[in-house]
Amino acid sequence: MEPVGHPTPYAERVLDLVERIPPGMVMSYGDIAEYLGEGGPRQVGRVMSLWGGGVPWWRVVHADGTPPPGHERRCLEHWHREDTPLRGSRADIRAARWDGTPRNRA
């Protein structure tokens, strides 16, 4: 089901942050809420479920590194393409977590 209307200002902030997560890196729903200083994991998940299709959604994971339910296969395909550090079929949170600091492109 497509959302009606435009994303809220909060949703826009979530989506903007998700777009900035570098390839091969991930943030948890809670990481995003903490970085923004508002909302929580459930609110971020709601934003992603409504409007996340246009951003690199596979870079947003549960705190244990698992992908969004029902998207496991597609996540793994993206993660393999981006060389995301993995532990089995989940992102290796310790190695792949992005803290929001811009990466230098050398």
Q: What would the CATH topology be?
A: Arc Repressor Mutant, subunit A
CATH top level class name: Mainly Alpha
Biggest sheet features: 2 strands, parallel
User: What percent of residues adopt helix (DSSP H or I)?
Assistant: 40-55%
Order of helices and strands: HEHHEHEEH
Question: How many β-strands, per DSSP?
Answer: 4
The average pLDDT score comes to 92
Corresponding CATH superfamily? Winged helix-like DNA-binding domain superfamily/Winged helix DNA-binding domain
Distance between the termini: 42 Å
Task: Indicate the overall shape.
Answer: globular
The number of helical runs is: 5
Amount of beta strand: 5-15%
Which CATH architecture would you pick?
A: Orthogonal Bundle
Structural class: mainly alpha
Strands side by side in the biggest sheet: 1-2
Describe it for me?
The protein is mainly alpha-helical and 106 residues long. It has one domain (9-94): Arc Repressor Mutant, subunit A (Orthogonal Bundle), CATH 1.10.10.10. The chain is built from five helices and four strands; from the N terminus they run αβααβαββα. The strands form two sheets. Strands 1-2 form a two-stranded parallel sheet. A two-stranded antiparallel ribbon has the order 3-4. A hairpin with a 2-residue loop joins strand 3 (86-87) and strand 4 (90-91). The chain starts with 8 loop residues before the first helix and ends in a 10-residue tail after the last helix.
